[in-house]
Design goal:
Belongs to the HARBI1 family. By secondary structure, the chain is of the alpha/beta class. Helix content is about 50%, strand content about 10%. It folds into two domains: about 120 residues, no CATH class; about 220 residues, no CATH class.
């Protein structure tokens, strides 16, 4: 039997290394950073506050805690710290292992374990509005941005850089900018909260292809969000439920439509900016939405970091390219919807 297949923790690994390779056991020193760090230092290392870390611990502890305390098993709070450190830095596992006082192989298992538990909470933390009251609240919140009616969410895609996966299909992950990526589609609201995420398409995939094969499109086709609209950029095709900006506005009404569209859809661009500033690595969107629900606030820009950290120190909690086929009938209905909105609504705005 290959002893390397029965590794459960660092002590098991050290014993096997001693038997197979004659490598002596290494004693790791672990620090419980939640209590040893003050608020400022904790935020600098993990990119979230202690209050949010406690919320995450509460919802994951039962699933990640080991059923026994043999061989100096890693406590849930330390597992969570290792996972958050990976999210915050995206650095090598050996560096995170040195930081957490565990072997890098243990870091790998912890990241998978904690990430998997958080991923199971997707439907709890990432969801589209369901009730009519929730839909109406979204309409009102978006209307307040720039007087664009009936908007339930803004949609866009962003590229998450990855290493080349290798193999015969590696090039389909190379995007138009020349690097390997996953093309991630997201729908967000005015609170910069994720309502839907699709993260399974290679970087060369067109944005419209991702939408056309997504569940959220089918929900709109089934009229699950009555009298509601998504706002997207020109990477999407016109539909009765998804509106894009005009390429060459000429009339005053068309200009008002474009201005309102851009200002309203800007929420998804801000959402991506906040997400990327908070974490260098994107293992799960659930972590981002937990931060949103606990009022973490937007991570500061580099020029505002000193003021932000000073406030935190004073114990303040700051808040192969593929072009999809066009559906001509759907595009025609979408164009008609857009022109009706421009003529009958934006044409009457002062």
């Amino acid at each position: 039997m290959d002893l390397r297949n029965v590794v459960h923790d660092d002590n098991d690994l050290d014993e096997i290394n001693l038997i197979i390779y004659g490598i002596p056991r290494r004693i790791y020193e672990r620090t419980e950073y939640f209590h040893s760090f003050d608020n400022l230092t904790f935020y600098q290392r993990f990119r979230i506050t202690k209050a949010t870390a406690l919320v995450m611990l509460d919802i994951t502890e039962a699933q990640i805690e080991h059923p026994y305390d043999l061989n100096h098993s890693v406590a849930p709070i330390n597992q969570l710290s290792i996972f958050l450190r990976f999210c915050a830095t995206g650095t090598h596992l050996s560096c995170i292992g040195d930081f957490g006082g565990v072997h890098f192989s243990t870091v790998s298992r912890i990241i998978v374990r904690v990430g998997r538990v958080l991923a199971t909470l997707y439907n709890r933390y990432i969801k589209m509005p369901r009730t009519q009251d929730e839909i109406n609240n979204n309409h009102f919140a978006f209307y307040e941005k720039a007087r664009f009616p009936r908007v339930i969410g803004s949609i866009d895609c962003t590229h998450i850089k990855i290493q080349s996966p290798g193999g015969e299909d590696a090039e389909i992950f190379r995007n138009r900018k020349g690097y390997f990526s996953i093309n991630v589609q997201a729908v967000g609201n005015t609170s910069l909260k994720l309502m839907n995420v699709v993260a399974r398409w290679p970087g060369s995939t067109h944005d419209a292809t991702i939408f056309n094969n997504s569940r959220v499109k089918q929900e709109f086709e089934n009229n699950n969000f009555p009298n509601s609209l998504l706002l997207g950029d020109s990477g999407y095709f016109q539909r009765p439920y998804i509106l894009t900006p005009l390429l060459n506005p000429t009339t005053r009404a068309q200009q008002l439509y474009n201005e309102s569209h851009i200002r309203t859809r800007n929420t998804i661009e801000r959402l991506f900016g906040v997400w990327k500033r908070r974490f260098r690595c994107w293992p799960t969107a659930v972590v981002y939405n937990i931060c949103n629900e606990t009022n973490e606030g937007e991570p500061p820009d580099p020029e505002d970091m000193e003021r932000f950290l000073n406030a935190l120190q004073d114990n303040e909690v700051p808040h192969v390219p593929h072009n999809p086929p066009r559906n001509n009938q759907g595009a025609a209905l979408g164009n008609q919807m857009r022109m009706n909105l421009i003529e009958n609504y934006f044409g009457n705005l002062e």
